[in-house]
Design a protein that fits this description.
The complex is a heteropentamer, with 1 copy of chain A, 2 copies of chain B and 2 copies of chain C. By secondary structure, chain A is an alpha/beta fold. In chain A, 43% of the residues lie in helices and 19% in strands. By secondary structure, chain B is α/β, with parallel strands linked by helices. Chain B has one domain: P-loop containing nucleotide triphosphate hydrolases (Rossmann fold, 3-Layer(aba) Sandwich), CATH 3.40.50. A 6-stranded mixed β-sheet of chain B has the order 6-7-8-3-9-10, with helices on both faces. Chain B has a 4-stranded antiparallel β-sheet with strand order 2-1-4-5, with helices on both faces. In chain B, strand 7 (185-189), helix 8 and strand 8 (217-221) form a beta-alpha-beta unit. In chain B, helix 5 (123-133) crosses helix 6 (138-151), helix 5 (123-133) packs parallel to helix 7 and helix 6 packs across helix 7 (167-180). The longest helix of chain B has 18 residues, at 197-214. By secondary structure, chain C is mainly α. In chain C, helix 7 packs across helix 9 (195-224). The interface between C and D is large, with 84 and 84 residues. The complex binds adenosine-5'-triphosphate (2 copies) and magnesium ion (2 copies). One magnesium ion binds at residues 67-68, 113, 189 of chain E. Chains B, E: Pfam families: ABC_tran. Chains B, E: Residues 5-265 form the ABC transporter domain. Chains B, E: It comes from Chitiniphilus eburneus. Chains B, E: This is ATP-binding cassette domain-containing protein.
Chain lengths: 320, 282, 288, 288, 282
């Protein structure tokens, strides 16, 4: 009995199109439809437009929001137009990675370790020839975040902080898809590649990467990293990512019932990774994974909602 | 007899700077000098003539002497660089777009030297074009067109497209198109030049009959001196854009103003040109 | 670089956009709703509601009527059926509705614009540079403000598509009209045609091949915008492509991409078929 | 839906792409290197290395030579200077290098293709559908595999741009050639012209207005791909637009977008100017 | 005298299904019936004639009777639907592309009824076109072209474009273009139809001289019976695509095979046609 849905208005949900986003959206939508009898509309889009639309209440709900990672979100949150609720994923990671075979080699594909000593970002200058950039052949290439993402600025600052600006090109791939493609291609060909990445992601589940160690998180240093204009930043690992559900202010104020559900909505990381791996092998099957989840893991989802709602969901999912 | 069409000191220079050319011409330069000096082509220079109502008025002259340019002034397809053009006493240069359209629809039609057929329409549609433009029903227009096609010997070709026709056949389509408009004034720019002698004889007679019966005013350009003398009740001779002589055929033959005219008219063997004189009501 | 006097328009532009959004955003949102409810949604509902075999039949009939050749009509129909087999029928119908509306709007607006440009030198001097801007200003740049003004969804997607796809039609209409043989136009003039009669009876028919080439390019460009449209919330095949790309599922993206191509080919063949004049323009034999 | 037999090509396609990457990826990456080092980087280095006033002078001279009108040349030069004032000079030079290479390649490949299509009915039946695919298959669908095969950066960006931008040129060359007056061609034939003489001496000059329209569209499309190119790592103005959009900084995006438009206009005016035949085709007066 | 050009049972049907039309024609149908039945135009039917070397061969006939179609077969701008075309004893239908090109470059040139000028080239370039095509230097070709332009009275117009010329001037450019090629065989399709009588006289005389001096073989289509009798050493008359009569002018005049021919030739006043006979070496 959600006031928003009762009034007949549909809940417009961002149709996120990366793997974890797809699955989480599917889970939320299932609860809303089956548990609360809501009409759910999925609106496909890219991240900026989504955040912008959320601020205008064009859509009401984003199932996976990396809070604080984009300027649009930050501005909208500061203006009170959007709210973040719950803890959808706990334990997400991010950092600089290389494929495992670069350090350890890989027997099945007969790849010899190219940089057995590589462990930390401070080792990187030695290996610039290994990660050679063909557009500037005397430097290595570090694959940054796509231009415009918040992480792009942080990584650019990190290159300065770790003294890598002379030995590495700050290569911004332009889009997440291009980054993924470049990494996947290198991995399949067994070539060395140095890149920024994060989890939970399908690529992370599919391939074996090693994260390079960085100086431990330090709030003061991290501030210098988030400020592009800081000339002399100091190094620091990223703080733990906060991944929540994003809702528009209007929706937040209008429907405490659903906000209550979102506050409890959480999927344990191992389970998520397993599901993502399943999706990677069987593309486009977020719906399948979702159905399996509701059929097999009531222990988890029953905690999200009151009993009567859970009952309704169960009724729709045991029959199948 | 009243003048149906009158040109007053009409000059036409093709090019960017007609005024410079006109100044040169006024100083006595001829068109070849003007072309060499300014790059402009002189079409006509200071031509005045008046064409009486009801009758065939023949225009002759060397190739490039400005005949086509002259007739185009009458229905104002060309605006003169200087001078006035009067039709039925009214200055067509002052006409509004609507009046000009009306003039072209109901009072003047034209046969073009290069035919100017509409390539995307059938022969029948081409001939019916003038009537369709002024709003007649398809049925009426095509019925009239059909009749004219028969008179120029093209029955059976109604549904052909122009590019499937021979040169002479195209010319006849253009002819039928102008005639089908049934206007009082007909401008004909070498309308029979691509036709065989038998057909030409036949069409000349038809034209004479038509003129005599309906009293049309016909301006007729031709290179065939015999034709000019057979059809024309008056004759004008152009040279290099200037009017050289003008008058009744007999008068021109009797007293050519210069050697040029004399050589032109010398080609007509005196007596053998039948004439239907008798000028129609003006 | 000292050579350049530094200038910066970013802030003024951003403020202008913001104030536009604040001032007109609501009203435009309502407009969005109207277009949606009045035009797009009914069409979409009809297309998605009809049983697939009805749609296939209509495609087959249209293609046959347009081309009179079953060698064209049959493969097109089979191809549409195959898209259904890939599980993309519903997405196909959504995209079809979007593209149909956008193409019709582009043609309805583009043809008159091209005619105007061909007839007035002064207006051409205004229209052509505007087209340059419309075609090369990156879609994203105006898409984002459009979303802020109109809201997320199909209407701004259609607007963006029309803006982009209209350009070649305008240009080619203009080109075609300016190439019409002046002798033929003069002859038509001599019979006292009105501008209107000249246009409909002489100029447009003779410029037709160029105009058809323009329509073809418009259709192609409208379909090349499908993916962009789905970036601001239009569902359908574009969404599939995007999702395929984001998850590095090349197969999924390609499959949906091929469906878009097929839709383009189908719309193109049908419009070109209806537009073509049946008679061969000139006996081929002459060109030995 | 029972009506459709379910089919799925995703897995086979994905496997095919994967095996292509594994088998040829390395070699194609080397090819990428060659094109980069041999062609693009030297040009880019030259453009970025030259002092801005030299470039501005060259633009002014080219524009003046092409159009013979300072009313065109002057504003273009000033506009380029303004781009510099926005702090985008370096990005402009990078984009210029990319677009120049892509446009030249598209013209060099597209013109012959159009000629071939116009001369052989059979080849046209092959070429035109391929163009349909090239123009409507969403860029991303082949861009991502291209990245996997060629690596990130400028080379796949150029390839994608050429694939997309070549289409209108091919079509309009074909159209223009097929509209050449057969009477004129027949007369030329009667003097025993070779195919080559016919093409260069008669057909191309008479088809020139259409071909120029094609070049215009190719330039426009190449520039409309700049943002897409930067999505796979080509730097320059496109990156600025992307960054502007990603951060909802409409001003930044628009400023860079306008720079792209300007670049398009400059390239277009200069190519069209050089292409245009100076003589007016027909005395205007006749068309009263 | 040996035959320079020979047509053997040549038929030409324009249309999709020439064979059906040919069958009908063989059964005695005429071209109007064939058009009505099949929609195909009959250009020529079963025409055999042989044109002797050195001499002017005039072709006449009603508009649409197939004259233009006939001459186009000689340099194979048209392939016949049936029959053979021989030039100097060789079947041109069997020629390779290269030999055909050579034939057109060095041995046959043509004046077109509709001129066929290149609109994007100046008058001088148009006239030099034939020589440029066969590889002569621009200088030589333009020098020759200049000479011919003077002979047709167009000096001073070298740098004009065709669409700035009058109809007769365009025709003269086409004429000069063919003459400038300096080939042995000239095909002329109504080359003087748009010219004034003075110029026409002059050009006729030039053509006669040219033929007499250089022994060229000229196929000359005209509607002007006097012209045909003045120039032609032989005359062929076509009607509805069939050859009606062929022979020396005197013979044709003396014994017309039917009423049609009689009406054609009746128009020539016996004696007043000067002739320069004497056929050149074949
Ligand atoms: N390209 C074509 N397509 C179809 N029919 C044609 C074509 N060219 C000529 N014809 C037809 O062939 C016949 C003969 O035409 P041709 O041009 O040879 O006549 P012609 O004797 O030269 O006539 P004219 O004296 O009028 O030029 C005509 O009936 C014409 O309709
Ligand atoms: N559109 C034009 N542009 C420039 N010059 C032109 C144009 N039309 C005609 N002229 C020039 O005007 C002069 C007269 O041309 P016009 O066509 O009136 O001659 P004409 O007497 O009809 O000749 P013809 O008997 O050869 O048809 C010529 O010198 C010609 O070059
Ligand atoms: Mg004339
Ligand atoms: Mg003929």
């Amino acid at each position: 009995t959600s006031p928003w849905c009762q009034s007949g208005k549909p809940v417009k949900v961002a149709g996120l199109n990366w793997e974890s986003g797809e699955l989480l959206t599917e889970l939320v939508a299932t609860v809303l439809e089956q548990g609360y009898g809501c009409r759910v509309e999925r609106v496909p889009s890219n991240t900026i437009t989504i955040e912008n639309a959320l601020a205008q209440n064009d859509i009401q709900l984003v199932a996976e929001e990396w809070v604080g990672r984009s300027e649009i979100w930050n501005k909208a949150a500061a203006a009170g137009k959007v709210k973040a609720v719950g803890n959808v994923i706990v334990g997400a990671t991010e950092g600089w990675y290389v494929p495992e075979y670069v350090v350890k080699g890989e027997k099945t594909r007969k790849i010899r370790p190219a940089a057995p000593q590589l462990q930390a970002v401070s080792d990187l200058p030695k290996y610039k020839q290994l990660f050679r950039d063909n557009e500037e052949p005397d430097k290595g290439r570090f694959l940054n975040c796509p231009s415009g993402w918040t992480c792009e600025g942080v990584n650019s600052q990190k290159l300065k902080a770790y003294g890598l600006t002379d030995s590495y090109v700050n290569f911004r791939p332009g889009s997440g898809a291009a980054l993924d493609a470049a990494v996947a291609s290198a991995y399949q060909r067994g070539q060395p590649v140095l890149f920024y990445y994060w989890s939970p992601t399908a690529l992370m589940g599919k391939y074996r990467f090693i994260q390079l160690t960085e100086p431990a998180y330090n709030e003061a240093c991290f501030k210098t990293l988030t400020d592009r204009n800081q000339a002399k930043p100091c190094g620091s690992a990223a703080p733990e990512a906060v991944i929540q559900a994003g809702v528009s202010r209007v929706f937040h104020d209008a429907d405490p019932v659903l906000i209550d559900f979102l506050g409890k909505f959480n999927v344990p990381l191992p389970l998520l990774n397993a599901a993502l791996a399943g999706m990677a092998n069987n593309p486009g099957s977020a719906a399948v994974q979702s159905r399996r989840f509701f059929a097999t893991r009531p222990d988890i989802w029953r905690a999200w909602v009151p009993d009567d709602v859970a009952q309704r969901i169960a009724a729709r999912n045991t029959g199948k | 007899m009243s003048a149906r069409i009158e040109l007053r000191h009409v000059s036409k220079v093709y090019g960017d700077d007609p005024h410079r050319a006109l100044t040169l011409l006024a100083q006595g330069a001829d068109k070849h000098q003007v072309l060499a000096d300014t790059g402009s082509h002189v079409g006509l220079y200071d031509v005045s003539l008046s064409i009486p109502a009801g009758g065939i008025y023949a225009i002759m002259g060397l190739s490039g002497s400005g005949k086509s340019t002259l007739v185009r002034h009458i229905n104002r397809l060309i605006d003169p660089s200087a001078g006035q053009v009067l039709v039925d006493g009214e200055d067509v240069l002052g006409f509004s777009a609507a009046r000009l359209r009306d003039l072209r629809r109901r009072r003047i039609s034209m046969v073009f030297q290069h035919f100017g057929l509409l390539p995307h329409r059938t022969v029948l549609e081409n001939v019916a074009f003038g009537r369709r433009v002024r709003g007649e029903s398809r049925r009426n227009a095509q019925a009239a067109a059909q009749g004219w096609l028969a008179r120029v010997g093209l029955s059976g070709h109604e549904r052909d497209y122009p590019d499937h026709l021979s040169g002479g056949m195209r010319q006849r389509v253009g002819l039928a198109r102008a005639l089908a408009s049934d206007t009082d004034i007909l401008l004909m720019d070498e309308p029979f030049s691509a036709l065989d002698p038998l057909l030409r004889d036949d069409l000349q007679s038809q034209l004479l009959t038509l003129q005599a019966e309906l009293g049309k005013t016909i301006v007729f350009i031709t290179h065939d001196v015999e034709e000019a003398f057979r059809l024309g009740q008056r004759i004008a001779l152009l040279r290099d854009g200037r009017l050289v002589q003008e008058g009744e055929p007999a008068a021109v033959r009797a007293a050519p103003v210069d050697d040029y005219v004399a050589r032109f008219v010398a080609r007509v063997s005196g007596a053998d040109v039948p004439r239907s004189t008798g000028s129609a009501p003006g | 670089m000292d050579f350049f006097v530094p200038l910066d328009l970013r802030e003024p532009i951003n403020q202008a956009v913001d104030s536009l959004v604040v001032r007109y955003g609501d009203r435009l949102h309502v407009l969005n709703d109207l277009i949606l409810q009045g035009l797009l949604l009914p069409l979409e509902r009809a297309l998605r509601g009809a049983p697939p075999w009805v749609i296939l039949l209509v495609v087959a009939l249209l293609a046959w009527r347009a081309t009179r050749r079953w060698q064209v009509a049959l493969p097109l129909t089979v191809a549409c059926y195959l898209i259904g087999c890939f599980g993309l029928w519903d997405a196909l119908m959504q995209t079809l509705a979007l593209v149909l509306v956008a193409t019709v709007l582009a043609v309805v607006a583009g043809l008159p614009l091209g005619i105007v440009a061909a007839h007035s030198r002064r207006l051409r001097a205004v229209v052509l540079p505007v087209l340059d801007v419309m075609q090369t200003l990156p879609t994203f740049v105006y898409l984002i403000p459009a979303v802020m003004l109109f809201g997320l969804g199909k209407v701004p997607a259609i607007l963006a598509t029309v803006v982009y796809a209209i350009c070649p039609l305008v240009r080619l209409t203009d080109l075609g009209l300016r190439q019409v043989d002046p002798d033929v136009q003069e002859a038509a003039h001599s019979f006292g045609t009105t501008r209107w009669q000249m246009l409909l009876g002489v100029q447009l028919p003779l410029a037709w091949p160029s105009i058809l080439a323009g329509v073809n390019q418009t259709v192609m460009m409208a379909l090349s915008m499908v993916v962009v449209a789905s970036m601001i919330g239009a569902r359908g095949l574009g969404e599939e492509v995007l999702a395929g790309i984001q998850t590095l599922d090349v197969g999924r993206g390609l499959q949906a991409g091929l469906a878009i191509v097929l839709l383009a080919v189908a719309i193109d063949r049908i419009t070109q078929g209806f537009g073509r004049v049946r008679r061969p323009i000139r006996d081929e034999e002459r060109r030995s």
